[in-house]
Amino acid sequence: QVLLVESGGGLVQPGGSLRLSCAASGFTFSAYGMSWYRQAPGKERELVASITYDGRSTNYADSLKGRFTISRDNVKNTVYLQMNGLEFEDTAVYYCHARRQWSYYWGQGTQVTVSS
């Protein structure tokens, strides 16, 4: 059974930080590119960041301005998203995504709320 289980979301004040984790099981994690997406209320799901299967290359949405960092641990089968300088506009459900060619999986999402 394939599982992607996100954690680390919550309520944070503007300017604060959170670290999201996504623990994977049921597939060969080290062979999959991993991404984080987010979906705010009333908006389409958008790509936040992605990382190649070996962690050598990363990609980020232009709007993030270097505030977020994606990383992975292929021993722990986990991908992370470090989020700094959080803004109100970062409020969304954050989803973990795994993809290799035609095969892909989604996590259930974790809520991040930025509020004062």
Account of the protein in words:
Helix content is 0%, strand content 53%. Strand 7 and strand 8 form a beta hairpin. The chain is built from no helices and eleven strands. The strands form two sheets. Strands 2, 4, 5, 6, 9, 10 and 11 form a seven-stranded mixed beta sheet that branches. Strands 1-3-8-7 form a four-stranded antiparallel beta sheet, with no helix packed on it. The model has no long low-confidence stretch (mean pLDDT 96). 28% of the residues are buried. The protein starts with a strand and ends with a strand. The protein has 116 residues and is mainly beta. It has strands at 3-7, 10-12, 18-25, 33-39, 46-51, 58-60, 68-73, 78-83, 92-100, 103-106, 110-114.
Key traits:
four-stranded antiparallel sheet, 53% strand, globular, mainly beta, 116 residues
Gist?
The protein has strands at residues 3-7, 10-12, 18-25, 33-39, 46-51, 58-60, 68-73, 78-83, 92-100, 103-106, 110-114. With 116 residues, it is mainly β. The mean pLDDT is 96.
Q: What global shape is seen?
A: globular
**N-to-C terminal Cα separation, in Å?**
40 Å
Low-confidence stretches: none
Q: Strand fraction band? A: over 45%
Round the mean pLDDT to the nearest integer and report it: 96
Order of helices and strands: EEEEEEEEEEE
The secondary-structure class comes to mainly beta
Helix content: under 10%
Total DSSP helices: 0
* C-alpha-based Rg, rounded: 13 Å
Main beta-sheet annotation: 7 strands, mixed
Count of β-strands = 11
